[in-house]
Amino acid sequence: MREIEHAYEIHPRKDKRGVDLVSAALPFGRLWYGEPNAVSNAIGYAEHYSRSHAAVIRVYDASGNLVETHEHKGDFKEAS
Q1: The pLDDT value given to residue 73
Q2: Whole-number average pLDDT of the chain
Q3: Which residues pair with 22 in a beta bridge?
Q4: What does the DSSP assignment read for 50-70?
Q5: Gyration radius (Cα) of the chain, Å
Q6: How far is CA 1 from CA 4, 40, 50, in A?
Q7: What digits encode the pLDDT tens for the residues 46-55?
C-alpha cells in the first residue's frame, strides 16, 4: 500500500452555503465550493491537484461524522 501524501477534508460550511475543502497540501489551506455539486466539485479538485500523489479525501456531514472516503492512487505520469 502506498503512503498517503495528501489528505483532504470536505466540511459543510456553517452558513450552509456550500462546503470547504481543507488540506495542508493546498496553497491557501482552504477552498470554498458553492452549490450545486459542491461536494463532487471539491472531490474533483482534490483528485486533480493530487494527480501525481497518493491522496485520501474524507467527506464529513454537518455533525462532524465521516460519511464518505475516497482514495486516489496518484497515477499521473509525465510523457517521456
Answers
A1: 82
A2: 87
A3: 9, 30
A4: TTTS-EEEEEE-TTS-EEEEE
A5: 13
A6: 9, 25, 17
A7: 988 888 888 9
